[in-house]
Structure formats: C-alpha cells, structure tokens
C-alpha cells in the first residue's frame, strides 16, 4: 500500500515540478542563445539543402530577428533539458504508482528521452526530402520566400509531433504496468485507432497536403503496433510472476474505470 497524498500536496508538488523544469530549460537555453549563429546554420539552413530553388529566409518586422533568436534558445534549451524534464514528469506521476511500479521509473525516463530524441532526429533528417517535395509543387515558376519565424515554427511543430509519436511505446509500457490498458484492449480497438490516427495526422501536420498526413500517419500506425507488442510483453511477464506477488492483470485497473458512487 502506498501512502495517499492530499490534493493540496499534489498541487504543491506540481508547482515545484514546473518550477524545476522551467529553471532547467532557462539554464540550458543560455548557451544556446549565445551560440545561436552556429545553431542557425544547422537547424534552419540544413533542411533546405536539397530544395531547388533554395528558399530565401527573411523577416518583415524589427522584432522578428530577436524573437527568432529567442525561439532558437528556447527550443535548444528544451531539447538539452529533456532528460531532466522527463525525470521530473515521471517522478510526479510516480506518486500514484504502486511500489513495484515505481521500480520502472529509471528505465522509463531513459526510454522516454531516447524515444523523444529519436523522433526529433527521424523527422529532422527527413525534412530535406519533405521540403524539396513541397517546394517542387511550384515547378520553378514561383520563387520561395520563407518568413524566418513561420519557417522555424514549421520545423518545431514537425519535430515535436514526431518526438511525441515515438513516445507511444513508452506510454503503452507505463499504462500496461498500471493495468489501465492491456494488449487485448489495444487490439480490440485497432480499427478505431486507425481512424483516430489519421484524423490526428490531419490536425497535427502544419500543411494540408495528403503526403504530410501519410508521412505522419504511417509512423503512428507502426508505433501503435509496437505499443501492442510492448503491452503484450508486460502481460506475459506478469503471468510468469508467482501468484500474490503482483495484482492480477487479467482485469484492467478498476479504479480508472469504476463509476462514481452517488
């Protein structure tokens, strides 16, 4: 049995968690802001290397350049601080877990960080092909001019979405350990999930073309399948434990689904 924390205690813990996360991002953003010129070449210029013609980046307001540098520092600071951010997130969630579930926090933090960074890297290294495809629609008849803040916002949204997509197996692992879901539940609602995935892909992609939606939708389907397999492994491991060592996972965790009492 784990000791229950009152609501005020949870809110206080949440407040300090957010404060620690904000401080870590600021600390990591400072060197990124100082080195923004070098980072600019890698983040903003590299994805355009395959485009023909190469778009011209420009800004239209005096404050745009300052805002752009601030965004570079904030994004790079968040990426550098991501291991600590995930550690704080799962540390906060751990207060609702059983003792045997809390033992998985360290590998979950490591997996969350690696999966998020892998998703960002996957998206980033496919961006040159994606941007070449989009710019090629003009057929050389229209010169591409990108406002630097809008272009950088596009890069951030795409990388963030793919980073979160790559977190699906980790979320499946945690929810399966908590007995909120199991592999049978995920398989039963697979067809519903496919529809929801492509609706989400249409909403999350910054451009309305079908190519970008499929580019996001297919990894979502793949990682949904991986999530089913992860949930199956958790159930199989639980079935091999001696009886009484762990609560029965044949049923989903009742306290997440039970109806409120009147």
Question: Helix and strand layout, with pairings?
Answer:
Elements: H1 7-34, H2 36-45, E1 56-58, H3 64-80, H4 82-93, H5 99-102, H6 105-135, E2 145-147, H7 148-165, H8 168-177, H9 183-188, H10 190-204, H11 210-239
Parallel strand pairs: 1-2
Helix pairs in contact: 1-3, 1-4, 3-7, 4-6, 6-7, 8-11, 10-11
Concise description?
By secondary structure, the chain is an all-alpha fold.
Count of separate DSSP helical elements:
11
Please report the distance between the alpha carbons of the first and last residues. Answer: 26 Å
Question: How many domains in all?
Answer: 2
* Biggest beta sheet summary: 2 strands, parallel
Mean pLDDT: 80
Instruction: Classify the beta-strand content into a percent band.
Output: under 5%
Helix content: 55-70%
Q: Let me know the number of strands.
A: 2
Order of adjacent strands in the largest pleated sheet: 1-2
Structural class given helices, strands, pairing? mainly alpha
Q: How do the SSEs run, as a string of H and E?
A: HHEHHHHEHHHHH
Radius of gyration using CA atoms only: 22 Å
Counting copies of identical and different chains, the oligomeric state is single chain
Task: Identify the notable features of this structure and list them briefly.
about 260 residues, mainly alpha, two-stranded parallel ribbon, about 70% helix, about 0% strand
Task: Explain what this protein looks like in three dimensions.
There is one protein chain. It is globular and about 65 Å long. It contains eleven helices and two strands; from the N terminus they run ααβααααβααααα. Strands 1-2 form a two-stranded parallel sheet. It starts with 6 loop residues before the first helix and ends in a 23-residue tail after the last helix. It has two domains: 1-166, no CATH class; 168-262, no CATH class. It has helices spanning 7-34, 36-45, 64-80, 82-93, 99-102, 105-135, 148-165, 168-177, 183-188, 190-204, 210-239, and strands at 56-58, 145-147. The longest helix is centred in the middle third of the chain and has 31 residues, at 105-135.
